[in-house]
Design a protein that fits this description.
The chain is of the alpha+beta class. The chain has helices at about 20-30, 90-100, 165-175, 230-240, 300-305, and strands at about 10-15, 30-40, 40-50, 60-65, 80-85, 110, 115-120, 125-130, 155-165, 180-185, 190, 200-205, 220-225, 250, 255-260, 270-275. It has a single domain (about 10-305), classed as 2,3-Dihydroxybiphenyl 1,2-Dioxygenase, domain 1 (Roll), CATH 3.10.180. Bound molecules: zinc ion (ZN).
Length: about 300
């Protein structure tokens, strides 16, 4: 099973204000900042990684906070339109009150595929669901003084992709990534991989008349799927090429190795490795505390520190 796609590795989204983003994810949602680095293509912008204690794949949500240099995105087709996190049974009332107290936009608790969930928007309008999964979630969460273990987010539950027609995206999931159709409700098709128990779901929503979304602030930039190591990564590169799709060369992201390809439904997919992980340049206890720069930007550290926003 270890040569399979092991669910979601990370999701990367675009934010506006860095300080607001940092406060929302670390304080309101109780996630750990596991890495503070810069956008490798635009080093005057941070790249934040939030997740559990060590940044386990399947818990990592990353952001480029572009400040006022980014226009607001619009949800639509050819996009990841929702991110689902799992929370423990009995915790939704805690979350509802917490979102209310922090002036977060949320909706009333609802249910789909037999699982209760609570929808909310982050400060930039990125859409989330906190889901109580039918089959539980055995992952150990990061706990904070305000969000204890009994309520804490465990990691990803699912990601939702909206397209005009799901066929081509479904084919990538089933024929290349090894997912299968689990359930369907109206125009929502739930795909799952049996290779892992958590972060294993991709929902495809078919919306024939809907307009193409605009990727900007509050939008997902790409979703990365997980493989064990860079040897298996390259096997998937071959499979994607054999399916007639274009894919990048292997890219070293310091904390994992990556490949990117545009799936035929229009969403940017990445495949990323477990190795080497986030503890490569900081101890587990210190994760997220220092500004970590890739080697090419280390000579410019002082200038970058002067332009990057302070997080307070
Ligand atoms: Zn990525």
């Amino acid at each position: 099973m270890d040569n399979n796609i092991k669910g979601i590795h990370h999701i990367t989204a675009i934010a506006g204000d860095a300080k607001k983003n940092h406060d929302f994810y670390t304080r309101v949602l109780g996630q750990r900042l596991v890495k503070k680095t810069v956008n490798f293509d635009d080093p005057e912008t941070y790249h934040f990684y939030y997740g559990d204690e060590v940044g386990t794949p399947g818990t990592i949500l990353t952001f480029f906070p572009w400040g006022n240099r980014v226009s607001t995105g619009r949800r639509g087709t050819k996009q990841v339109t929702e991110i689902g996190y799992t929370v423990p049974e009995g915790s939704l009332d805690f979350w509802l009150q917490r979102l209310e107290k922090n002036n977060v936009i949320y909706n009333k608790i609802a249910e789909k595929f037999g699982e209760p969930y609570l929808t909310f928007l982050d400060p930039d309008g990125l859409k989330f669901e906190l889901v109580v999964p039918k089959n539980g979630d055995s992952r150990l969460p990061w706990a904070t003084p305000e969000v204890g273990t009994e309520h804490a987010i465990r990691g990803f539950h699912n990601v939702t992709i909206t397209t005009n027609k799901i066929d081509a995206t479904a084919k990538v999931l089933t024929e290349i990534f090894g997912y299968r159709l689990l359930e369907r409700h109206v125009n929502r098709y739930r795909f799952v991989t049996d290779a892992v128990n958590e972060a294993a779901i991709v929902d495809l929503v078919e919306a024939p008349g809907e307009a193409i979304g605009f990727v900007g602030g509050g939008s997902v930039h790409h979703v990365a799927f997980r493989v064990s190591d860079d040897k298996i990564l390259m096997d998937y590169r071959q499979k994607v090429l054999e399916a007639g799709l274009q894919i990048t060369e292997k890219i070293d992201r310091n904390y994992f190795y990556s490949l990117y390809f545009r799936e035929p439904g229009g969403v940017l997919f990445e495949i990323a490795t477990d190795n080497p992980g986030f503890a490569i340049d900081e101890s587990v206890a210190d994760l997220g505390t220092g500004l970590k720069l890739p080697a090419q930007y280390e000579p410019y550290r002082e200038q970058l520190v002067n332009v990057l926003p302070t997080l307070g």
